[in-house]
Amino acid sequence: MDFFSQILPLLDGGNLTVAFSSNDKETITAMVVMQPTIKDPHVKVLRPIVLTGKSYELDDEFFKKITEPIIRANGIISNIADFEKATAKLESENVQGIRDRDDRKKKHDDLVKKADELLKNETEENTQLAIGILTAALPFAENKEKLSERISELKSKVTQKNLF
């Protein structure tokens, strides 16, 4: 198998930089540095793999020595990438949940304010309208029991006025 066919499967977690150097005519030093594509600072501290030997030794052992550490590092990188995606998704859902809660509160508050405006002029018609508006606000209320009691009180007032 040739060099590039063996290196291709190792590129799963990012980029590899391979540098070769020699201080003499016989010994070669190979340094393999992983450069992950994710932003987590813990991944940036992956140590390079350094191999030193004669050319025939590196021919025989180069891929045997680098494959396992790179595969392990790729697994770690993959786990961190999955964690980052999951964290981003949870943050997004949390933000959406806060927006939904704020929207529900605003709808509730707007409806209650309309009902309060109608009740400033306490006519039977305004009270009936306020009951309808407060009933529409009920699904958005944080304290449904309190709002239900208020609606019941208003209904009682209308009923009492109709009796007399």
Protein architecture, described:
The protein has 2 domains: 3-86; 99-163. The chain is rod-shaped, with a radius of gyration of 35 Å. The mean pLDDT is 82. It has 4 helices and 3 strands. It is α+β, with helices and mostly antiparallel strands and 164 residues long. The chain starts with a helix and ends with a helix.
Helix content: 55-70%
Distance between the termini: 101 Å
Sheet having the most strands: 3 strands, antiparallel
User: How much of the sequence is in beta strands?
Assistant: 5-15%
Helix-and-strand structural type? alpha+beta
The global form is rod-shaped
Number of domain modules: 2
Order of H and E elements: HEEEHHH
Q: What would the keywords be for this entry?
A:
2 domains, alpha+beta, 164 residues, three-stranded antiparallel beta sheet
